[in-house]
Fold each of these.
Amino acid sequence: MGRGSAGVGQGSAGEWRGWRQAAEEALYGPCGFYRRPEGPAGHFRTSVHASSLFAEAVARLLCRVDEALGRPAELAFVDMGAGHGELVSGVLEALPAEVASRARGYAVEHAGRPAALDDRDDRIEWCAEPPAGVRGVLFANEWLDNVPLDVAETDADGVPRLVLVREDGTESLGEPVAGADAEWLARWWPLGPVRCEDDVRGVLKEDDVPPPHGLRAEIGHPRDAAWARAVATLDRGLAVAVDYAHLADARPPFGTLTGFREGREVAPVPDGSCDLTAHVALDACALPGAGLLTQREALRALGVSGGRPPLALASTDPAAYVRALAGAGEAAELTAAGGLGDFGWLVQPVGIPNPLPSPPPSPPSGETGENGPLRRARGGLLVDVPDDEEQ
C-alpha cells in the first residue's frame, strides 16, 4: 500500500507487526483514531446518526426486556463503543417516564466523556469496561468490527500465513498460522490446508490442489472472546451486537479489512489517521441460545416501517404529513436492502426469553426474497456504505 505515516506508534514505520497489534495501537493508543476529539461521527455514519428512529426502536426493545425482568429497581442500558454517547442519550430520552425513572445508562468507551454530554445528567455513567452484574440490555452497535484482528493470507503454495504490516500500510507475509489462529480458521474460515497440530503448514496428498495464492481471512477469535466477556457482564437481560457481517457459507475470499476517513473509504493504514474495520463473522461470535436476524427484520419487529403516510393526511394536516413522510424516508434508510437494513443483529438472551421474533426461514435454494438477507445478501457480504454513497 505504501501510504505515508502519521507516527502514532512507539515503533518506527519500518517495524513489522501483525494487524491485531498494529490496529490496537492505531485505534486505541494514546494518539489513536478513537481518541480524536471529533469522535467517530466525524468520519462515518451509523444507524444512530442516520435517524432518531433507531434509538427509539432500541428504547422499545429495552422496555420489552424490562417487562421480561419484572421491572427491576434499576434497569441498565449498556452502550458498547459509545462514541460521544449519542445512542445511550437517545435511548434514555425515548423511554416512557416510569421506565426512565428506573433506567441507568452506561457508556463504554476508550475516549473520555465528551463535553457535549451534560455532566449534570447522572443517569449516564462513562466507563472503560461494561459494568458487571447488571440487568437490562447490553447493546453493541458497530463495536465488534473495531475489535482488532490478525489477518491471514495464502502464499504461493496455498499455505495460510500471518500478514505483517508497517505503520505506512506496507504488508508482508510472516509465519504460517498456528495454534488458536489455525483452529479458528479451520472451523470458521478455511483457506486451505490449515492444520491444528504442530505442523501447521499441513501435508498435501498427491491429489490435493492448494487454494489460489492471495486468499485472505480475518482471524476472528478475539471478537468471539470479546463478545463472550461482554455478555457475561449481564446478570439477566439481553445482549445485542449489530454489525455488517458474513456467515460461514459465504465468506468473502479476499477478506474485508478497510479504512474510513471523513466519510470515505480509504486504504487501511495503521497510523491513527483512519478507522480500521473488518466485517464480523457473527455466526462464530454466537453463544448457545443466540438468534441471528437482519436489521430490517429487527426494526420492523420494533415498529419501524418505511411505509408512506396516507395521502389524505396531506389535505387534513399538511405539517403532520410532511413529518410522517420524513420519518418514512428515515425508516426506509434504516431498513434498506443493500444498506443498513442488511446489517446483522446477533441477539443473545441471558435468563429471559428472546423478546425479538425469530426470522422466517430462508427461501429454498435458487429462490429470491427478503426473508433472510443476512444469509443470502449479495454473496453473503453486508457492506459498510461510505457517507457519499449512502443516499
Amino acid sequence: MSDIIQLLPDSVANQIAAGEVVQRPASAVKELLENALDAGADKIQLIVKDAGKALLQVIDNGCGMSVTDARMCFERHATSKVRKAEDLFAIRTMGFRGEAMASIAAIAQVEMKTKRHEDEVGTLIEIEGSSIVKQEPTASSNGTSISVKNLFYNTPARRNFLKSNPTEMRYIIDEFQRVALAKPHIAFSLHHDGNEIFRLPAATIKQRIVHLFGNNYNERLIPVEEETTIINLKGYIGKPEFAKKTRGEQFFFVNDRFIKDNYLNHAVNKAYSELLPDDNFPLYVLFIEIDPSKIDVNVHPTKTEIKYLDEKSIYAIIHSAVKRSLGRFNISPTLDFNQETAFSNMITHKAPEDIVPPSIAFNPDFNPFSSPKAPSAPRDNSTYFKEQYQPKEVSQNWGSLYEIANYQQAAQATIELDDEKEEEMPAVMNKLYMQIHNRYIVSQIKSGVMVIDQQAAHERILYERFLLHLEDRKGASQQSLFPQTVNLSPGDFELAKSLLEDIKSLGFDVREFGKNTLVIEGIPVDLGSTNINETQLFEHLIEGFKNSQQELKLTKRDALARSMARNSAIKAGTALSQQEMNTLIDELFACKTPNFSINGKSAIQTITLAELAQKFEK
C-alpha cells in the first residue's frame, strides 16, 4: 500500500488558514488596520464599497516596505514582529503570526502599493488566489495602500454565507471603532460607497469616544483610573441611567489590543449590581496596561482572547476601581444630615433697622353674618373636630345618590350572574373588572377568578397587530405637530436604513435627514393619543430589535414587531378605567394566542374555586 500522507499546496493551506482568520469583510478590515498601526502610521483611511464585498482599501502613511518585504509579506508565517519563541511573551504589536496577508490574498484579488520614505519609487504587486499577477515599480506616496477586491471570489460557498450589506457594514463599523478607540492619537477616516461615515482627528480618549458615538455621550462618561503593581487601569465608564438593554458599547483593551473577556466583564457588571437590573448593560471603555510577560495573546486565531498569570487580582482591581468611580462622582444620591436646608431660603441678610414690620389692613364694613361662606372666628381644637363629624346638609347634586345606588346594584347584579345568563344582559352592559396594584386585571368567571397581566396582554395585542401591518404594509400614521430629529450612531443608522421600509409599514412617517440623522414626522396610530417621546420610542425600537435578534435569532420582521410591542405597550403601574380594561380584554381574546405573552410566558392565570377553598382549608 502506497503512502497517503502528503503536504498540501500553499494555495490550499492558505485557503484553510483564511477560513479561521478571514470570516467576513470585517475580519479583513481588522487585519489591514492593525498592519497599518504596526507600520507606525498617524493617519489611516478605510474605503469600503458594497459593504466590503466589492472593495476594501486601507491607506496609511506608515514606514512602507522595500521591494523584498512587499513580496515576502504575502508568504505564510512571514512577519517582522517575531524572531524567536520568547518574543511571543513580549509582544507590543497588533500582529505577529504572519498569516493575515497570505490568507487574504488566497481568497481575493489584492493590489498593494507601498513606498518607504527614503525610496524614490514604490512597488506595485497584484495577487489573485495566492498567485502573483504583476510586480513592478510604481509612483506612490509614502506608506502603503492595499486594495482587497471581490472577497471570496474563488470560494462562492463562503460568499453565500455573508449577510445583507447593512449587517456586514455594521460589523465593519464595529471593527473600525475598536481600532480607533485603541489609538485615539491617530487620525482615522471611513468612507462607504462614496459617503463619509467617520472623520476622526487625533484626540484624547474621551474626545474619541464622543466622536465615535455622538456628542450626547459627553455627559454620560465617568473617568476611571487606577495604578497598581499588577496593572494600570484607565478609561471611562457610563452613568447607570444611560445603560442599554443590548451589548455593543463594552470595550476592554489590553496593551491597546481589543479583547473579549466574560470574566472581566463580570467584574464591571458586579460593580453596577446595585444600580442596574440584570438585563441592562453599561458603557465602558477600559484600558489595561500590563507586563507582556504576564499574559499570553497567542490563544485564538482572531487574537481577541488573552490568558493572564494573575486573573483573580485583575478582576478585583477592575471591580473596586469601577465601584469607587461610581461612588466618587456621586452616582448614588447622598444626604447631609448635618445641615438643615428647609429654612435656608427664609434667612434675610438685611440689617435690623432696615426691616419693616408688616402692616395690618381690615374692612370696617365687614359683616360675618351677611354670607354663608364667611370665615368663622378662631376655634379651639375640640370644637373643630366636633363639627367635622357632624352630619352636613347636602345643598345640591342630591340626585347623584340615586345614581350611585343604581350603579352599585347593577354591578352586584353583574357579578352574581352565571356565565349562562350573561348572554341575556343588554349589549351595552359591560362586565366589570377590578385592577390590582395597577398591574393585574381581575374578573369573576364561572369556575373561579381570572387574572390578566395587563402589560403582557397589551404586548400580545400590539405584537400581532404590528405583524399584520408588516405583512399588508398598511400601518396608519398619526402626524406629529412638530417633527423630531433622531441622531444615531453610525452602526445604528446603517441598521435603521435597512429597516426603513418595514418601520414605515408599522405606521412611522420617517425619512433620512443628513449624516446619521432621521426625521420622524408621524408615529403609528396604534400607539394612541398619549404623550409619546418620538425620539426615545424610535431609539428604543432600534435597541429592542438588536436585542431580539441577538438573543432569540428572530427574523427581521418578527424582531421588529416584538421590539415595537414591548416599547409601546402600557406598563405595570398604569391605572386603567373600566372602559380601557373592557377594550383591552376584548382585544386580547381576539388575538390568535391570547393566553401567552410575546416572551412565551402566561398572560392569563385562572384560579379555580377549588384552589381558593384549598387555600382556606375548606
Amino acid sequence: MPNWLLPENIADVLPSEARKIEELRRLMLDNFRLYGYELVMPPLLEYLESLLTGAGEDTDLRTFKLVDQLSGRMLGLRPDMTTQVARIDAHLLNRTSVTRLCYAGSVLHTRPSGLHATREPLQIGCEMYGHAGLEADAEIQELALASLALAGFTAVRLDLTHVGVLRALLDNCPAAKRDQAKLYAALRAKDVPDLQALTQDYAPLVRDALLALPSLYGDIDVLNKAREVLPDLPGIAKALAELAELAALAASAIGRAQVAIDLADLRGYQYESGAMFALYVPGLPNAVARGGRYDHVGEAFGRARPATGFSLDLRELARLLPTAERKHSIRAPWGNAPELKEKIAELRKSGEVVIQSMPGHSHELDEFECDRALVLEEHGSNWILKNLG
C-alpha cells in the first residue's frame, strides 16, 4: 500500500475548497460577533471522563480514545464541541448573566455519519447560556438560518421537534422507559414494524401514541393533529405549545425558511432537554445544521444552566457550493531593487494579490489568475501595471 494514502473518510482539502471553507468560517464568526457571541477555543483532546460528561452513548461510540503518555489516563479526541463549550461556561467563566459563546474547529469521528461524510468535520456553532425562555431558542434558530443565508442558501427547510413529547410518554409507562434506547432507534429510523413489536405489551395509551409519532410529520398543521392523537399530558401540551411559538418566530426570522414538524426526529435525544431543530438544503439528504436545548449538560460540570445552541459542518456545507472563482492577481518578477519592493508592498497594502515569479519556473495556480503584470517602464525606473489580456 502506498504510504501517502489517507484513512477512509479522511481527506486533504485543496486550495479552491479550502478558500471556500475559510471564507464561510470568517463570514459566520463575524456575524456571530455582531450578535454578541464571544469566541472560545476548546482543546482538541482532553480526559475522557470530562469529554463524555453529559453526553450520550452515541458520543462515546464516535470518540477516538488513546492513553496519555504523561499521566497514563485515557484521553479522547473531541467528536463534538458542544459539551466542551458547556464546560467552559459552567466551570471556567462561571458567570451568572446570559453568556453567548461561539467556536470553530475540527472534530474527529470513529465512523462517518453518512455514506460520503468525512470523519473530520470542521464544526462551527454558537451557544447561549443562562436564559430558559424561548427567546434564546428563537435567537439560535435565527443565527442558524442567517448562517445558511450568508452561504447563499435561500431554499431552506426548518424541521422542529421536541424531546418533551417522548419523555412524557416514557414517564407514564415503566416498560417503555426500560426500552427507551430501542424506542429511540426505531423512532429515528421511522421503523413502524419494529415499534409495533417493541410496544405490544405497553399501556394502550402510550402504545398508540408511540405508533403515531412517525406519522406526525409535515407542515405546522401537524401540531393540531398531534393534539388530537396524543394523550393530554402536561409535558406533551407544553412541548406542542413551544413548537407552535417557535414555528411562528421562525417565519419572521432572518433567512426565512419553510417550517415543518417531525415529532419522530429525536437525534441528540440523550442530552437534549427541549425543542430541537434541523436545517435542510437542496443537494443534501441529511440535515446541514442541527441545534436545540440542553439545559442539564452543565450540571455534570457543577453548575446547571439553561442552554441552547446549534452547529454545522463547514466542510460539508462548502461541498454544496459552486467552485470559487479564481482571484485576479498581479505577476511580478523576483528582485531586490528597492523601487520594486516598495511598489509590491504598496500594492499588497491596497489589497492586491502580488505573486513574485521564482526564476526559471512557470505559473501553476489553482486559486489565482494573473491578469496583470508589474513591469519596468520602458526607458525609465518606474514600475507600472500592464494588462495581460
Amino acid sequence: MKEPRSHDNAAAVHAHAGERATRPPEPWLDYGHLLPGITAAIRADDCSAVFIVGDSGLGASSLLAQLGSVFGGEVAVVPIHGSPSLTAVPYGVLAPFLAHLSLADISSRVAVLRSLWDHLEGIRVGTGPALLLVDDAHYLDDATCAMLTELVQAGWAKVVAACVPRPGVPAPLLRMWHEGTAEWFDLEPLTAEQGHELCEALLGGIVLNSTSHGFWTEAGGNTLLLKTLVREAESSGTLVQRHGVWLKTAATPVHTVKLEAVVKLQLMRISAAGREALNLIALAEPVDETLINVVAGEAAVQELLDQHLIKPGGNGLPNLRLVNPVYGEVLRSIVPAAQSLQLHRQLISRMDVLEDNPDSLLRMVTWSLDCGADVPDRLLIRAAVLSARLLQSETALRMASAVRDVQWQSIAQAVLARSYFNLGRRDEAAAALAQETVDGDAGPSQVVSSSVLRAATRAAVGQSASLIRAEAEILREWGEQQPGLDGQRTPAAQAAVTLAATVIGLLAGSVDGDYKRMGPELERVLLQSGTVEGSLAPLFRGLALALKAEMMCALGRGRQARLLVLEAAALAQPQENDVFFIPEFISARLVICALAVGDWADAQNLLDRYYESSGVSMATYGGAAYVVAGYIAIRQGKTGDALPLLTAGLEALRDSDPQNLFGLCAAMAFYAAAGAGLPEAERFRADFKAWGQHSTHLLAAQANSFFDAGLELLNADGSGVEALHQNADDAAKENATYLELHALELALGLGDTSRLDRFCETAAATEGEWAQSLAEYGRALKFGGAARYLSAGEKLQAATAYHLAAKAYGLALAAPDRGQTKELSAVARAGLAHCNEELGQGSEETQNESVVPKLTKREWDIVNLAVQGLSDRQIADTLLISVRTVEGHLYRCYSKLGITGRDELAGAAAVAQGASSTG
C-alpha cells in the first residue's frame, strides 16, 4: 500500500489586470502551483480521488469550476453540491440523477448504482472515467459517500471533493487517502501579494497597495470576503478610480446587507452558545482565553477554534481573537446595543485593560465608547496616541475629542492635528494647532516640551518656517515673564527654555534650508542637551541629531549623516512623543540618507522595517513606498518603470501625505512624463504648481530641480537648464554639495556640459557610491579615452545608474582608441548588454542605438548648421526659432553624441550619420 500523500500549497492568485479597457468578468482564480498539481493528480493512473481542504471562502468552489473547464473536453464532468439541509437524506445530493426512480428503487443501493451508471454512460466523453466534482463534501450523507466510493473502486469515476477542515473529509471517502489512492491539497488564505493581484484582477486596473492591503487585512486573506469587500466598496462609492488608479476614499468601512449575508453564511454552522461566545470575542478582542472560557464556556470556545473562526492573539499572550477583522466589524455592527452593554458589564468587571497591549487597549476603549461607558482620560489619551500612530485616524479623532481633563488637552490637540493631517485635512490640522497656547498653569518642563513638540508637529504637517519660528518667540516671551525661573525654579529650567527655542529655530531652518546658521546652533544643542531635566534630554538630542543628519546629507556627507540618525533612533523617547511625529521624523531622515548615497536597497528595507516595527503595516504600501521606488527608478534611468509608480504614489499622497512627499512625487512624475513626451506631463505640472511649500528644504530643492529639468525636456528652450544652474548656485551658497550635484547631474543629462569641471568637483566632494560614480563619469567626459569611459561605465553599473553606464560603455566602444585591446571592447559590450537588459532594451538593435543614439530631424537640422559654422543666433534666424531653443537642442545633441562642445561636433556627427546609414 502506498503512503498517504499531502500537499500544503497556498492558494495563489495570478489574475493579471493587464491594460484592458473594459472591466473583465469576475476572474477565475489561477491557483499557481496548486492547480497543476491537482490536474496531474487527477490524470495519474494510481490516483482515484483528490481532496481539497480549506476554510469556507478560500475559493474551493471557484477551483472546482476551473477544474471543470480544464477537463470538460476530456472526460464527463459531473458537479455535485453538498447541502446542510440534505445531510440526513440518503442520496439527497444525487437526486438530479435519480429523478426517474420510484421511492422503492431509491432505497435500493443496486438501483441507485445502476441509475448512476446509466447517467455516466449517457454523458461519456472519451474512454476515461468520469470526473465527479463534489463541493461542500462535508455535508454528504453516509449513503452518498459509500456510493461515490463504490463508483471510484469500480473504475467508473474519479472524485475531487472540497470540504472544510472540520468536520473534514467524510470517513468513507477518507479511507481512500489512508489506502494511498488519493491526494490531499490544503487551501491557505491569500498572501498580501496574492490579495493585491486579486484586487487588480477584480477591478481591471492599477490598485494602490495600501488599498489592496486594507481589503486583504480586513478579509484575513479570505478570498470570498475580499471579493465581497471590493465589490461592496465599489458600489458604495468609497472605492473610486482616479487617473487610472483605484483607491479607497473613506477610512471607515461601509458594510452592506450583502456582506452581512456572506458572513452569516460562513457562521451558520456554529451553535447558539458558540455564537454568543463569538459575539463576546468580537466585542472584546483580543481577550484572555482563560477569562472567555469562564464567561462563555470551554465547549463554546473549543467549537470556535475547531471551526477556524478564532485564533490565538499572538504577542506571546494567551489571548483569542477572530481570524479576520471583517467578522468582527460585521458582528459588532449587528449585535444590539443593549446586548453589547450587557456583555460589556459582564466582562469588564472580570478583566484588566492591558495598557501595554495595543490591541487590547484600543478594543476596550472603543467598546466602552460604543456602550457609553466612562473611560478615564488617561486611557483615552493612550489609546488616541496609539490610534494616530497606527493611522487609525477616525478612531483617534473620536478618542481625542472625548478628552475633558485640562491636563491632557495639549496632547489631545496634537492628536487631533495629526489625525486631521493623516486624513489629508490640512486646514483642520492647522486649526487644531492654532488652538494651542502656552499654559501658564503648567510646569516649566511641560510648557517647554509642549512647545517643542507642537513645533515639530507644525514642521511635520508642512507649515511655514515663519509659523514655526513664531512658536519659539512665544516660548521666549513666556520665559521672560516668569520671574520664578531665576529663583524658585532650577537653572536647568531656565536653560531648557533657551535651548527649546533654539531647537524650534532649527526646525524652521530645516524648512527654509538655512544650513549655515544651523551648524553652530546644532552643536550647541547637542552639547547642552544633557543638562536639561527628564524627558526633555532625549527629545532635544533626538531632534538635534536628526536635524544635523538632514543638514549633513544636504552638505554631501550622507554616510556620516546616517550614523547620526541611527544614534537618534536608539534614544528612548517617552511614549506620548509618538503622536508628535518624532519616530517618523527620525526614520524619514534615515531613508533620505540612504537615497542620497545611493543605497537603494537599504532605503527600501529601512522603510519596510520601520513600519513593521511601529505597527503601521498598511503604511508600508502607502505613498512613501511609491515615491521611494519611483525615485530609485529615475536614478537608475528606468523612467518607464518610474512613471506608473509615481502616478500611483500621487493618488495615495493626494489624500494622505504624512511625510510631505507630494511635491517631490509630482516633480519626478512631471520629469518622467516630459521625457517620454506624454500628455500627462501637463497634469503633473499643475499638481506641482498647486502643491506649495510643504516640505523640508532638502526635499523641496530636489523637487524644484526635477521640475526645472522637466520644463527643459518639454520646451527645449534653455530656460530649464538656466534654472538648474541657478539651483546649483543657490545650493553652493549653503555648501549643500548634494543638492548642487543633483541640479548639475540633471543639467548634464539634458546635454549641458558648460559646467563639467564644477560637476566633477562637486561629485568628488559628495559621499556615496552614486556621487563617486558620477565623478568618474564626469572625468571621462572631460578627458575622453576608451579606458576612462570603460572605468566610468563599470562604476556607474555598480552604482546601478544603468542609463549613464550604458552611455559610458557606448562611448568606450565609439572612442577612437577602442581598438587598442580586444579585451576592452569585449568588457564594454558585455557591460552595455547588461545595462540594456536592466533598462528593458535587451535586443541587439536597441544596444546599437545605445552606442549611436538617434537624433531627431530638428536636432539634425541644428547640428548640420552648427557644423557649417553658424552661430546660435544665425541658426535661430535660419530656422525661425529662439536662441534658447537652439541652445537646448545643442545641449541634448552633445549628450546623445557623448561630446562636450562644438569643437567635437563635426566628427561625432559624421560617425552618427555613418552608423545610421549603415544600420
